[in-house]
Design brief:
mainly beta, Thrombin, subunit H, 6-stranded antiparallel beta barrel
C-alpha cells in the first residue's frame, strides 16, 4: 500500500504500508503526523499511472502504538494501524499479507524482500514503479554489536542488509519486510523503521525494521 498525504491539492507518497485484514493497513508510527490528511492507495504498482483495480481510501481512524515516542525512534514501538472506511475486495492486485507467529525470530541470513517506492539511492530520485530488494537477516546478537548498531537496536526489531549495496531508503518507511516461512508461505516480519544517517546502504548499518512478531497481541487488541 502507498500511504499518501495531501499538500496544495495534490497527493504525495510518504510511506509504505501492508494490508493485514480487509479493512486494516499496518505501517510505521513515524509515518503518521496528526497535522496531515492521508489516503491509502491499494493495488498500485506505478504511482504515476492510472491502474485498473487500484483503490484510494481515506482512513476511518489511525491507531499509533501508545508507547511510540517520535523523539526516540531507537526505543521501538514504531508501528501504527490504519482502519479503512470499508472492507476492500481482494483481487489479483489487492492481497492480504500473513502475520508471522507471535515471538517468532528469524535466523541469521534468512532471505527476505523489502518493497517500496522509496528513494533509489541516498538522496536519489523517487521511483514511480514499486521496487523490491533482497536483504539477508542479521541476527540481534550481531546487529547489536558496537561496530554495527550497538544499543540503538532493540530485540523488538529486525535488522536486514548491511552489505553496503541493497537497503531500504527514504520513502520505504512503513513498508513490509517479507520472509518465507518454513511452510513456504510469505509472512511480513518487519516494518521499515530506520536506517543510517550516513546513507541508506551503509556497510554494517543494516536497515532496521519493527519486528512484527513482537506486536501480535497489540495488533489483535486494537
Amino acid at each position: 500500500a502507498s500511504l499518501q498525504y495531501k499538500s496544495n491539492g495534490k497527493w504525495y507518497h510518504t510511506c509504505g504500508g501492508t494490508l493485514i485484514a480487509t479493512n486494516w493497513v499496518m505501517t510505521a508510527a513515524h509515518c503518521i503526523s496528526s497535522s496531515l490528511i492521508y489516503r491509502v492507495f491499494l493495488g498500485k504498482y506505478n504511482l504515476a499511472a492510472e491502474e485498473e483495480g487500484s483503490i484510494a481510501l481515506s482512513p476511518e481512524k489511525i491507531v499509533v502504538n501508545e508507547n511510540w515516542n517520535p523523539e526516540d525512534v531507537a526505543n521501538g514501538y514504531d508501528i501504527a494501524l490504519i482502519k479503512l472506511p470499508e472492507h476492500v475486495t481482494l483481487s489479483d492486485q489487492i492481497q492480504l499479507a500473513c502475520l508471522p507467529p507471535a515471538q517468532s525470530i528469524l535466523s541469521s541470513n534468512t532471505a527476505c524482500y523489502v518493497t517500496g517506492w522509496g528513494r533509489l539511492q541516498t538522496n536519489g530520485p523517487l521511483p514511480d514503479d514499486l521496487q523490491q530488494g533482497l536483504l539477508l537477516v542479521v541476527d540481534y546478537a550481531t546487529c547489536s554489536k558496537p561496530l554495527w548498531w550497538g544499543n540503538i537496536v532493540k530485540s523488538t526489531m529486525v535488522c536486514a542488509g548491511g552489505d553496503g549495496i541493497t537497503s531500504s531508503c527514504n520513502g520505504d518507511s512503513g513498508g513490509p519486510l517479507n520472509c518465507q516461512g518454513a511452510d513456504g508461505r510469505w509472512e511480513v516480519h518487519g516494518i521499515v523503521s530506520f536506517g543510517s544517517s550516513l546513507g541508506c546502504n551503509y556497510y554494517h548499518k543494516p536497515s532496521v525494521f519493527t519486528r512484527v512478531s513482537a506486536y501480535n497481541s497489540w495488533i489483535e487488541q486494537v
